[in-house]
Design goal:
CATH superfamily of the largest domain: Histidine kinase-like ATPase, C-terminal domain
Number of helices: 21
CATH class of the largest domain: Alpha Beta
CATH topology of the largest domain: Heat Shock Protein 90
Bound molecules: ligand 1YM
Number of domains: 3
Number of strands: 27
Radius of gyration: 39 Å
Structural class: alpha+beta
Helix content: 25-40%
Strand content: 15-25%
CATH architecture of the largest domain: 2-Layer Sandwich
Length: about 650
C-alpha cells in the first residue's frame, strides 16, 4: 500500500440522507420502476396511517406531467413546532432523519410505524426536490427540501428554507409533493396502472377511507383521469370484486372482524363454483404473497370448523374420514388481513409472515367467529353449499388418486382378481391379438368356446358398464366392468394412456342387435372416447356384427346380417323348403355358429369405429350420453332414432 495509506481523514463518513443516495438499494430495493414507486408509497403510507387512525377521511394522490407526485391527507398535519432536542421543525425531523416516526405508547398503537416503511426521509433523499405544506390550526406552513450538487457532490434532501407560515387556511392536513430524482431513476415514469391497483387495494383493506387518484399527464385539452376508491364493505367488497365475473356458490361473502388489544384481524371469503383457490393475505396493508403463519392459522380454523359442522349436520357419518383443507378451499376466494407490531418477514422475497404466535391467534379468532356465524340458522344454506362442494371435491381428489393408481398398476393388473373374468389368449403377439368384449355371460360362454384361443381373448360383461358421460371418474373407476376393461387392455387411462402397452390390435365390441345392445355399444364407445381416446383415434376399436337371421336348407345353413341380405338368401333358395330363425341375441348362438358368423376373420363382418371430427364427436357424445334431456330429445328428433344414430363415423 506504498504511497496509498489511509488516514482517518480519508474515511468518508456519510451523514444521514447521503448514505441513502450512495446505496439506494439498501433502502428501496432497486433504482428501477419499483424503487421509484417506493418513494410514493412511503408518503402514501403516512397519509393512510393518519386517516386510518381516525384523523381525516381522505387521501388524494396526483401524478403530474413532469413525473412529480403529490399526496394529501386531511388529518392533523405533521407537527410544525420545533423539536426540543433536534432544534428543527417536526416536519424537518420527519423528512431528514432516517427512521423518524411518532413515539408510541400503550394508548397509541401504530401498527405500521417503522415496519414496512423506511420513512419519508428516504423519499426526500432520493428526490430532486420535495415540498411539504401543513394545514394546521388555521395556518398554512410550508417547507421545501432539495438535493443540489455542491462542489461536485450531491447533498441529499437538505432543507431549502426553514418552515414558515405562509398564509391562513381553513383546511386541515398534510400535502407533500416531490420529484423522483432523474439522476437516480433515469427515465423511469410513474405507472398509473401500478398506482391505481395499489391504491384500490389500500382502499379495500381500510374500509371507509376515500382515495382519489388523478393523472394529470394527459394531452392539454383532455380531461384528467380521476379514480376514486371508497369501500364501505372493506374486504367483503374486495372479495365481491375478485369474484365479479364468476358464478358464486352463495351471494353474501362471509366476513369476520376481530381485534384483541395488540392484534387486529379481518377476513372475508366466498366460494365460486370453480376449482381454483385464491387466498390473498396482508400484514399491515402489505401483501404477504408467500403466505405465512396468519394463512396457516386461517386454513386450520376453516378445516376444523367445517369438518365439525359437516359431522354435526350429518354430511359426514361416523365411519367417514375428515375432509381435507384443500377440499373446503376449492373455488374459494379469500382475503385475510392482520395488523400487528414487530412483524417478522421471511421467505425468498420477504413476503411471508414469520411470527409464530400469529397462527394460534388467527386460528382461535376465526374458529370462534366462524362457529358463531354457522350457528345462525340464517347461514345454514351457505354452510350446506360449502360442505357439499367440499364433499364433491374430496370425491374428485380420491378419484384422481384412484386413476393414478389404476395407471400405475396397469401392468401388474394381470394378477388382480378383476381379470378373473377375462379368458386370455395364449399367443403373446399384441399386433394380431383380439379382445372381444361380449354382452352377457351366456354369449361370453359361447364366444369362449368358439374362439381361436391362440389370438382371441374374451371379456364377458355381466351388467351394463357405467355411462362415462354421467358419472364422475371415481364412480367410473370403481365399476367392475370398467375396471376389467382397463386392466385387460393394459394401456392405462387419461393422461397415463400409453398405446405402447396395448395388448390387442383389435378391441371388438360384441353386443346384441337390439336396443339394449345399442346402448351398451354407446356406453363402451363413450368410455373409450373419454378415457382412452387413442384407442379410437388409432383405429383399434371395432363393432362386431352378429347375423340377424339363420336360414337352414337341406344343403346347408346361410346367415343374413340384415333384412336385405335375408331377401337375397330366400330368393336364392327358390322353391326348396327352408327354415328361418331370427336371432334375438348372441346367446342363442352355439359356439360353432358364433365362431362361423361373427368371430372367424375370414367370414365375419367388422365395423371399425373412427372419429372424423373430434369436436363434433365431443358434442354428439355429450348430447346423446349426457344428462340434459331436452337437447337429447331435440337431437334424436332431428337426426334419427337413438338406435340408429351413429355415435361415431363407422369406417368400413
Ligand atoms: C401526505 C403525507 O405524512 N400525514 C401525517 C403524518 C403525521 C401526522 C399526521 C401526525 C402524527 C402524529 C401526530 C403522531 C406524522 N407525524 C409524525 C411525527 N401525510 C402525512 N399526518 N401528529 C401528526 O403520530 O403522533 C410522523 S408522520 F413523527 F412527526 F409525529
Amino acid at each position: 500500500m506504498a504511497g496509498n495509506e489511509y488516514k482517518a481523514d480519508d474515511i468518508e463518513v456519510l451523514e444521514g440522507l447521503d448514505a441513502v443516495r450512495v446505496r439506494p438499494g439498501m433502502y428501496i430495493g432497486t433504482t428501477g420502476s419499483k424503487g421509484m414507486h417506493h418513494l410514493l408509497w412511503e408518503i402514501v403510507d403516512n397519509a393512510v396511517d393518519e386517516v386510518v387512525n381516525g384523523f381525516g377521511d381522505t387521501v388524494e394522490v396526483t401524478i403530474f406531467e413532469d413525473n412529480s407526485a403529490s399526496v394529501f391527507d386531511n388529518g392533523r398535519g405533521i407537527p410544525v413546532d420545533v423539536h426540543p432536542k433536534m432544534k428543527i421543525s417536526g416536519v424537518e425531523v420527519v423528512f431528514t432523519q432516517l427512521h423518524a416516526g411518532a413515539k408510541f405508547n400503550n394508548d397509541n398503537y401504530n401498527f405500521s410505524g417503522g415496519l414496512h416503511g423506511v420513512g419519508a426521509s428516504v423519499t426526500n433523499a432520493l428526490s430532486e426536490w420535495l415540498l411539504v405544506e401543513v394545514h394546521k390550526d388555521g395556518k398554512l406552513y410550508r417547507q421545501e427540501f432539495h438535493s443540489p450538487e455542491i462542489d461536485g457532490k450531491i447533498k441529499s434532501g437538505i432543507r431549502k428554507n426553514e418552515i414558515r407560515c405562509v398564509k391562513d387556511t381553513d383546511k386541515r392536513g398534510t400535502y407533500v409533493k416531490f420529484l423522483p430524482d432523474p439522476r437516480v431513476f433515469l427515465d423511469e415514469k410513474f405507472s398509473i396502472d401500478v398506482i391505481s391497483k395499489r391504491l384500490r387495494e389500500i382502499a379495500f383493506l381500510n374500509k371507509g377511507i376515500k382515495i382519489v387518484l388523478t393523472d394529470r399527464r394527459v394531452k392539454p385539452d383532455d380531461e384528467f383521469r380521476v379514480f376514486e376508491y371508497l369501500y364501505a364493505g372493506g374486504l367483503r367488497d374486495f372479495v365481491l370484486f375478485l369474484n365479479d365475473s364468476k358464478d358464486k356458490l352463495y351471494s353474501e361473502p362471509i366476513f369476520i372482524e376481530d381485534k384483541t388489544d395488540k392484534f387486529r384481524m379481518t377476513l372475508s371469503f366466498q366460494h365460486t363454483d370453480g376449482y381454483t383457490e385464491s387466498i390473498f393475505s396482508y400484514v399491515n396493508n402489505i401483501p404477504t404473497t408467500e403466505g405465512g403463519t396468519h394463512e396457516t392459522g386461517f386454513k386450520s380454523a376453516i378445516t376444523k370448523v367445517l369438518n365439525d359442522s359437516a359431522r354435526k349436520k350429518g354430511f359426514l357419518k361416523e365411519k367417514d374420514s375428515n375432509l381435507q383443507g384443500e377440499d373446503f378451499r376449492e373455488g374459494m376466494t379469500a382475503v385475510l388481513a392482520v395488523s400487528m407490531q414487530n412483524v417478522q418477514f421471511e421467505g425468498q422475497t420477504k413476503t411471508k409472515l414469520g411470527n409464530v404466535e400469529v397462527k394460534s391467534q388467527v386460528e382461535s379468532l376465526v374458529t370462534a367467529r366462524l362457529e358463531e356465524y354457522f350457528a345462525d340458522n340464517m347461514n345454514r344454506p351457505t354452510l350446506d353449499k360449502i360442505i357439499q362442494k367440499a364433499i364433491q371435491a374430496a370425491k374428485v381428489r380420491e378419484a384422481s388418486r384412484l386413476a393414478k393408481e389404476v395407471a400405475r398398476q396397469k401392468n401388474s393388473m394381470n394378477n388382480s382378481n378383476l381379470v378373473g373374468k377375462l379368458s386370455a389368449c395364449t399367443g403373446r403377439n399384441a399386433a394380431i391379438n383380439e379382445l372381444f368384449i361380449v354382452e352377457g355371460d351366456s354369449a361370453g360362454g359361447s364366444a369362449k368356446q368358439g374362439r381361436d384361443r391362440g389370438f382371441q381373448a374374451i371379456l364377458p360383461l355381466r351388467g351394463k358398464p357405467l355411462n362415462a358421460e354421467k358419472k364422475r371418474i371415481d364412480q367410473i373407476l370403481s365399476n367392475d366392468e370398467i375396471r376389467s376393461i382397463i386392466s385387460a387392455l393394459g394401456t392405462g387411462i387419461l393422461e397415463d394412456y400409453d398405446s405402447k402397452d396395448l395388448k390387442y390390435d383389435k378391441v371388438i365390441i360384441l353386443a346384441d342387435a337390439d336396443q339394449d345392445g345399442a346402448h351398451i355399444r354407446a356406453i363402451l364407445l363413450t368410455f373409450f372416447f373419454r378415457y382412452m381416446k387413442g384407442l379410437i383415434t388409432d383405429g383399434h376399436v371395432y363393432v362386431g356384427m352378429p347375423p340377424l337371421y339363420k336360414v337352414s336348407k337341406r344343403d346347408g345353413v346361410r346367415y343374413a346380417y340384415n333384412d336385405e341380405e335375408l331377401k337375397a338368401v330366400i330368393k336364392e333358395t327358390g322353391k326348396a323348403s327352408y327354415q328361418l330363425q331370427r336371432y334375438k341375441g348372441l346367446g342363442e348362438m352355439n359356439p360353432e355358429q358364433l365362431w362361423e358368423t361373427t368371430m372367424n376373420p375370414s367370414n365375419r363382418s367388422l365395423t371399425r369405429v373412427g372419429i372424423e371430427d373430434a369436436a363434433d364427436a365431443e358434442k354428439i357424445i355429450s348430447v346423446l350420453m349426457g344428462d340434459a334431456v331436452e337437447p337429447r330429445k331435440r337431437y334424436i328428433y332431428e337426426y334419427a332414432d337413438f338406435n340408429k344414430v351413429t355415435l361415431f363415423d363407422t369406417l368400413k
